[in-house]
Amino acid sequence: MYSEKVLDHFTNPRNVGEIPDADGVGEVGNARCGDIMKMYLKIDGDTITDVKFKTFGCGAAIATSSIATEMIKGKTIEEAMEVTNKAVMEALDGLPPVKVHCSLLAEEAIHAALWDYAEKHGIKIEGLDKPKADINDEE
Ligand code: FES
Asked: Which of 10, 20, 109, 138 has a 20 to 30 Å separation from 52 between CA atoms?
């Protein structure tokens, strides 16, 4: 029921950890299951030069955060904004329907970290709204 890619990223997650001097940090939680994801970004100019994450959550949440970090590393802020939960799921060759909500955490954590970066630097990122700390996908 899980794709090879999900299992790979779950058992061998990429970019796990913290960036002590991160330029942007975002933390989001899923109100339904209580899982939490924290994303750290290092940004130079317009480019995300490094990214790390910590996820206290289910296997699908760990796999989606892992692949999401790979999808935004070395990319511009604009490109990172295009990494939606749909894009993350496609990159993982899909998730079981009951686990789709887990992929929302990755998208929201990236947005929260970008928001933090934008606030600290007094800039506005096109298309980015203030993220909610808690995601309630049942709303
Ligand atoms: Fe909570 Fe997957 S069950 S994020």
From this structure: 138
| Ligand 1 neighbour 43 (Cβ under 6 A) | no
What's the pLDDT score for residue 139? 46
Protein residue closest via CA to atom 4 of ligand 1: 102
> Burial letters for 102-138: b for 16+ Cβ neighbours within 10 Å, e otherwise?
bbbbbbbbbbbbbbbbbeeeeeebeebeebeeebeee
Burial category of 79 from C-beta neighbours within 10 Å (exposed 0-12, middle 13-18, buried 19 and up): middle
For residue 26, the cross-strand partners are 39
- Residue 58: active-site member: no
Express each pLDDT in 31-70 by its tens digit.
889 999 999 999 999 999 999 999 999 999 999 999 999 9
Name the nearest CA neighbour of 43 among 76, 66, 17, 16.
Answer: 76
- Cβ count near 6 (within 10 Å): 24
Question: Quick check: CB of 103 below 6 Å from ligand 1?
Answer: no
